[in-house]
Write a sequence for this structure.
């Protein structure tokens, strides 16, 4: 489980660094509340996360707690992947036997 979490974090960091290479994504904890990210950044991030992690981020998910930090984004990705798994009765982890 820790290995999967580390892999997701590295994958997420790669996506985020392509969008805003100037940020220290691991250190920043107030990306939205602190005004670090603007609306264009959020649109880019949502599109990239949808593509990279095969999820569908809806308007209801666009709240600061989901995007203030990399940890918030990881929790959102995990939640949406689990919801996909339950809805479709499969997911990448399930296909791998996890």
């Amino acid at each position: 489980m820790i290995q999967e979490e580390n892999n997701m974090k590295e994958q997420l960091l790669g996506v985020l660094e392509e969008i805003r290479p100037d940020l220290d994504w691991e250190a920043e904890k107030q990306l939205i509340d602190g005004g670090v990210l603007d609306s264009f950044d959020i649109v880019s991030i949502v599109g990239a996360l949808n593509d990279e992690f095969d999820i569908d981020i809806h308007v209801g998910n666009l709240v600061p707690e989901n995007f203030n930090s990399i940890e918030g984004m990881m929790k959102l990705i995990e939640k949406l992947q689990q919801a996909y798994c339950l809805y479709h009765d499969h997911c990448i982890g399930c296909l791998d036997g996890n």
